[in-house]
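G., before I forget:
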Amino acid sequence: EAGVAQSPRYKIIEKRQSVAFWCNPISGHATLYWYQQILGQGPKLLIQFQNNGVVDDSQLPKDRFSAERLKGVDSTLKIQPAKLEDSAVYLCASSRTRAGELFFGEGSRLTVL
Amino acid sequence: SQQGEEDPQALSIQEGENATMNCSYKTSINNLQWYRQNSGRGLVHLILIRSNEREKHSGRLRVTLDTSKKSSSLLITASRAADTASYFCATDTSGSRLTFGEGTQLTVNP
């Protein structure tokens, strides 16, 4: 089966600019996750969707981050305006069931200058 | 704060040796999972162990879980250079969210 697709793989922006990341999960996976991974650290959950509803966004900085899941399939994560500390890899993952085995994409590496 | 904490932070061994990584957590779990991440890549699932299980095997991997001590260990036997990666434990505490630790960086020298 096709894996989780993410784009872009790399993005460099100036602080205060905006950026958007796209994710296409594995077909049939109801649960979709966005994680932020800062260099040298473990992934931190930003938001979790079950179909197109939000299950957990308690760690999402809602003043600058937003996410949506279109028709329960693809998802976009937006940062506006970006700060230097947003430099990280943004990982999308999907799973058949909540808290089951996660399948990760390759990630989108963001550098904020 | 992170639920799981891996120990050691970094481990360097020779090819053919065994590698053991530990994970400690703070609250009761439904299951615990181990993932591997090669440099610059996404995470890959290795094994899931449920709270009512004590040990699981998958190829050269052996995972143990001690819920009384709130700890798990991942053993990689007969390591290979290709095993060089970061290894993360992830805990499911509520049936919905997986929380990852900071990881162990394993280096296997040829």
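Chain B is about 0% helix and 55% strand. Chain B has a mean pLDDT of 93.

More on Monday.
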